[in-house]
Design goal:
The complex is a heterodimer. By secondary structure, chain A is of the alpha/beta class. Chain A has 24 helices and 20 strands. Chain A has 3 domains: 193 residues, 3-Layer(aba) Sandwich (Rossmann fold); 168 residues, TPP-binding domain (Rossmann fold, 3-Layer(aba) Sandwich), CATH 3.40.50.1220; 173 residues, 3-Layer(aba) Sandwich (Rossmann fold), CATH 3.40.50.970. In chain A, the strands form 4 sheets. A 6-stranded parallel β-sheet of chain A has the order 3-2-4-5-7-6, with helices on both faces. Chain B is elongated and about 55 Å long. Chain B folds into 2 domains: 85 residues, 2-Layer Sandwich (Alpha-Beta Plaits); 73 residues, 2-Layer Sandwich (Alpha-Beta Plaits), CATH 3.30.70.1150. In chain B, the strands form 2 sheets. In chain B, strands 5, 6, 7, 8 and 9 form a 5-stranded antiparallel β-sheet that branches. At the A-B interface, β6 of A face α1 and α2 of B. Bound molecules: flavin-adenine dinucleotide, thiamine diphosphate (TPP) and magnesium ion. Thiamine diphosphate binds next to α17, α19 and α21 of chain A. Chain A: InterPro entries: Acetolactate_synth_lsu, AHAS_TPP, DHS-like_NAD/FAD-binding_dom, THDP-binding, Thiamin_PyroP_enz_cen_dom, Thiamin_PyroP_enz_TPP-bd_dom, TPP_enz, TPP_enzyme_TPP-bd. Chain A: Its EC number is 2.2.1.6. Chain A: GO terms for molecular function: acetolactate synthase activity; flavin adenine dinucleotide binding; magnesium ion binding; thiamine pyrophosphate binding. Chain A: Keywords: Amino-acid biosynthesis, Branched-chain amino acid biosynthesis, Magnesium, Metal-binding, Thiamine pyrophosphate, Transferase.
Chain lengths: 612, 171
Amino acid sequence: MNATTDLGDRRQHAGQDGTAVSTPSLNGAEVLLRVLQEQEVEVVFGYPGGAVLPIYDALFKQNSIRHILVRHEQAAVHAAEGYARSTGKTGVVLVTSGPGATNAVTGLVDALMDSIPLVCLTGQVPTHMIGNDAFQEADTTGITRPATKHNYLVKRAGDLARTVHEAFYVARSGRPGPVVVDLPKDIMVGPASYTVASTAPHRSYRPITEPRIEAIRQAVALIKRAKRPLFYTGGGVINAGPAASEALGRLVRLTGYPCTSTLMGLGAYPTTDPQFLGMLGMHGTFEANLATHGCDVLINLGARFDDRVTGRLDAFSPGSAKIHVDIDPSSINKIVPVDVAVVGDAGRAIEMMIEAWHEDRAEPDREALATWWRQIEAWRGIDSLRYSQDPSPSAIIKPQHAVKRLYELARETGRDSFVTTEVGQHQMWAAQYYAFEKPNRWMTSGGLGTMGYGLPAAVGVQVGHPEALVIDIAGEASTLMNIQELGTICQYRLPVKLFILNNRYMGMVRQWQELLHGSRYSESYSEALPDFVKLAESFHGTGMRATCLGELDDTIRAMLAHDGPVIADICVDEAENCFPMIPSGAAHNEMILGPDQNEQAARITVEGMMLV
Amino acid sequence: MASTDETEITAVISVLVENEAGALARVIGLFSGRGYNIESLTVAPVEDGRNRSRINIVTSGTPMIIEQIKALLDRLVPVHRVADLTKDGPHVAREMALIKVVSTGELRSEALRIADAFRARPVDTTTGSFVFELTGATDKLDAFIELMRPLGLVEISRTGIAAIARGPHTI
Ligand SMILES: Cc1cc2nc3c(=O)[nH]c(=O)nc-3n(C[C@H](O)[C@H](O)[C@H](O)COP(=O)(O)OP(=O)(O)OC[C@H]3O[C@@H](n4cnc5c(N)ncnc54)[C@H](O)[C@@H]3O)c2cc1C
Ligand SMILES: Cc1ncc(C[n+]2csc(CCOP(=O)(O)OP(=O)(O)O)c2C)c(N)n1
Ligand SMILES: [Mg+2]
């Protein structure tokens, strides 16, 4: 390391933003922690190792930043995601070099796909050893380049503070995402200078947040003249902060138009409101999907036309003029060509649309709207989420019913509740049967679909909201993917509730095998499951089990009343399928409904089988 | 409404990037990770102090894909500017090639005659070989190379294009 350079840096003095502050006694690790403090970081999720020992030493010597020791680095990232999504802050992760960094990769891609702001600090071998295949060396910036929004390798102590400040800015601004900062050990040990966060614009990175007024007016002109309009809202509204959700509520009520949401957007508009049609897409409601198919103006606010939403592209919302509000210009016309593109923050765009609505002097076509709503009510009348639960106490529990009762009983407690999920059928049932009145209460892995997300995410949510009710609605298979986090939950006395819809199958896989592969259940049975009650106890928690309907409510009540961590093993119908379902490669009007609704056979094409 | 035209077009895109480690890898990774074509790529620092480099990329795809590529390039953190030279107006694009021809007798003199017609300069000469240097538009280089094939062409080294918009405006 070039000591003279660092001395040179240290001789600089505090001044305007971005200049060095004279801090002769700090080493790199201490400078790093000062940056985190300035960035108002309250908690870091991490796991130690050789390359980050100096950082752990600096953590040991201070109290302002809390460290949560996870049991696996992937879980550190998911915990930070849960924390970020539920608090609106940037999640922070600290892992060691080599295996620490590679273990974090799944979490990083998960955060990238779902636009979650994270800063992940990775240890690295000393600068002079980089490239030597040194012990626990991995090309972390190389590996994580396509897994992050951006990444950095800090090669000079003088760049450390500026780089970490910049990482926070990049992670949270524009379309949020994960940012890795790779920190060689010598930089952490050696002297470094502190610089405060710069307020000058970034040299090259300038996200657009303010929408163009012309685009807004054009959009509103279309919206106001619509005969069959539909709001299609997504995770971008959640990213835009609670004020954006509040504005969305005003816009939807002002227009009187129907509103649907993606999986990632749930909670931005209250899901119990009559203007809300339920989720759209592969497992969306009949009314949401047919409205998407039949609308004449589709207003996409912060959603990205994901394939789980569009189904067969050439049949997606075929007759509509499309408006797309997105902060990322590369989302526009990526999959579905649109008529009006509004680049900018969803919250700002919605506020401007409300103003433009008042300015535009056209009168909405109330008659056409009434007809449209009558059509929607007819679709709603199908009651596509109906399921039949045998009411006898000895009856087998339907998973849908378990989620419905969980929601109702949790609501009775009057507590603010946050739900995370794993991936599979239970995730879809959670989306369908749990209601969300507010944003940031629903944490799920949508884009990557990472089994094992929910339990560590619940850790992060509970750390961010110590008083709240935090429930991971889980499948038994997914749960085992990060089950070690029961250790973290125990250590920090986090009263997380792990609510397992135990169908003894990788149910989502089993469902596809039933529908697409002739009921050949290849490797999808959850063999050799642990006894989840004893498992809870061995991690110093409380285990409970419900095996029949008669035990369901009492189990849920006991779980909610307990002030510590609980695993509730809810034994549910093994054969239940998740409906409605638009098979891959089918159009929205080719939805399969459940056995209780009118049988509607969809052609499951060979082409559809090749899709995932 | 955005173009849904399925015909493939070729585009010359210039990108001004911060000259930092990994910047080129990000650009290339964007293409390889998403299955887009790179037909040629050139990169060199273009500013005093060498803090910015210019990357010129020739790529092809449907108009929607070209727009997507530009948007994806533009959102990379170290990217300052992205210009679509093909779309934004007339531009000049030039590349340089070094072409080795090994032949004697009539073939050798024919090679020299054609090189002269193309204003290709011999930059290395032995009794049995030439290395010609030729600068020009890509199709001119292609044409020259085709003519050299029967005359003893053995090796080609091409730079890929450097391109710039015509007229007073800048990237
Ligand atoms: C088993 C399974 C089944 C699924 N089934 C469904 C389904 O039936 N229906 C469904 O909807 N999803 C489903 N998903 C989820 C799906 O894969 C996608 O993750 C989801 O549809 C994407 O949601 P989104 O469009 O809201 O985009 P997100 O991934 O949330 O992306 C947000 C978009 O908003 C933009 N943005 C970010 N911040 C802002 C801002 N401040 N202002 C404006 N724009 C912003 C981003 O650029 C991006 O384009 C399923 C997932 C799994 C694992
Ligand atoms: C890490 C990972 N591996 C594989 C998959 C594919 N996959 C999707 S759902 C699923 C089964 C999930 O089973 P379970 O957790 O029991 O949930 P269920 O569908 O039964 O509710 C699998 C294997 C995945 N999404 N993530
Ligand atoms: Mg299961």
